Amino acid sequence: MRTSIGHKANSNLMFFKLFLITVSFLSPLYALAATHEVMVLDPRSFSPSNLTIEVGDTVRWINAAGGNSHDVTADDFSFNSVTAQGFTFERTFNSIAEILYHCTVHSRPASQGGTAQNGRINVIAAAATSDVSVVSVDAIDGSYESGEDLGVKATLNNTSSVASGGFNISFYASTDNNITTGDTLLGTIAVSNIAAAANQNIDENVNLPESLVAGDYFIGAIIDLDDNNLSNNTNVDATTVFVFTVFTMNAGLNDAWFDPVTDGQGFFITIFPNSSIVSLAWFTYDTELPALDAVANLGDPGHRWLTAAGGFVEDRVVLDIVSTSGGIFDTAGAVQRTTPAGSDGTLTLTFKNCRSGMVEYDIPSIGAQGVIPLQRIVNDNVPLCDALLRESHLNP
Fold it and tell me: What is the pLDDT of residues 318-337, one digit of tens each?
């Protein structure tokens, strides 16, 4: 049976309620408040009659009885609805408590033996939830062919006191900096968990679909975690990447290129865009080491260099190899070259983008065929190449 309590007890109870309300504001990341519906029915019942909710939740009573009048009244008379045939009554509960209530038309407080139309609400502490934010998104700058992989990075931060549990982070390409799930999906990465107050870095490759048309795209990310703060579940890289459909050689490729695996050998490549001509010099070595007693006044006796030239179409050119011999350092004289041109073999030079290319060689005179992946020795000319490529697509 419930009894009245003294003034001191009332003061303590009020302090406890104020404390709980304060904690609910100071302790971040509690689940979003919910609204629970209780139907007032005939014959003389509440459905559900026993309900557990969390602090901050709202209960909405709806009188759906046929034609009988009802009401909702707290057993301690701290709240009550109108008495009517049809009504909707709401109350939000902001502290932990057990709330007993009844319909005054058809019952009385439970402490007085009421059982005909009585209900109970158990208000418990709100369960803590995580808050994971997408702190940053970074796509590797540059130009990319549609269908190519793109390197992306993201930093995630769980600012809450509880672990996040599993969720997904999805990367999108958008023509504006407002990233939504309606943009072009590039890839989704599963995140198993982020511990409380911890960060996690994402460093993955995603694919630029072949359906993308040439243009500038913002790259952003969205996490699908239904946490306490949905406003920080999205972020975007402020710098766009350029997507092209066909790579076209341009003067930004003029550079020194090599394969790090065979460091000490490499290529000087020059593009003449107005003439659609490529000139190449390949600095390499003989197929076998020179004899131990071989000498040279300058450099190594095994040093070799080959030249090649040819006309390009878009990203590819086939070059006739020319081998030069018989010259003397800084001395005029007759120099022998491959006759006819190309009889030594051919090089096929292909560029995938402004950062990488490939040489395929076929030299029948020495029975040698192979493939050499190329990268720049320095990247100073990459921005120029990207800009020229973008210009050729957007302003042909």
Answer: 999 988 888 888 888 888 88
Q: Is the pLDDT of residue 242 over 90?
A: yes
DSSP, collapsed to helix, strand or coil, labels residue 306 as strand
Ramachandran bin of 228, using left for φ above 0, alpha for ψ from -120 to 50, beta for the remaining angles: alpha
Residues 6+ apart with CB under 8 A from 37: 59, 60, 61, 62
Overall pTM surpassing 0.85 (yes/no): no
pLDDT in tens, 269-307: 999 999 999 999 999 988 888 888 888 767 788 888 899
- End position of a domain, from candidates 182, 213, 244: 244
Q: Is 224 helix (H, G, I), strand (E, B) or coil?
A: coil
Domain that includes residue 194, residue range: 132-244
One-letter amino acid for residue 356 of the chain: S
Q: Which residue has 């239904």 as its token pair?
A: 226
Q: Where are the alpha helices (DSSP H) in 195-312?
A: none
Q: Which of 97, 124, 151 corresponds to the end of one domain?
A: 124
Residue 261, both tokens: 């695996």
- Rounded CA-CA distance 143/246 in Å is 11
Dihedral sign, Cα of residue 167, residue 168, residue 169, residue 172: negative
The position carrying tokens 């769980």 is 158
Beta-bridge partner residues of 152: 139, 204
Phi-psi region of 342 (alpha: psi -120 to 50; beta: other; left: phi over 0): left
* Assigned token pair, 333: 């004289």
Does residue 297 share a domain with residue 184? Answer: no
What is the DSSP track for 31-99?
Answer: PPP-EEEEEEETTTEEESSEEEEETT-EEEEEE--SS--B--EETTSS-B---BSS-EEEEE--S-EEE
Tally of structural domains, the chain: 3
Spatial neighbors of 94 by CB under 8 A, at least 6 apart, are 17, 20, 21, 24, 55, 56
Contact 24, 126 (CB under 8 A): yes
Could you tell me if 240 and 256 lie in one domain?
Answer: no
- Rounded CA separation 373/356 (Å): 8
The CATH number that applies at residue 98 is 2.60.40.420
Residue 2 domain-assigned? no
Q: Are residues 56 and 188 in the same domain?
A: no
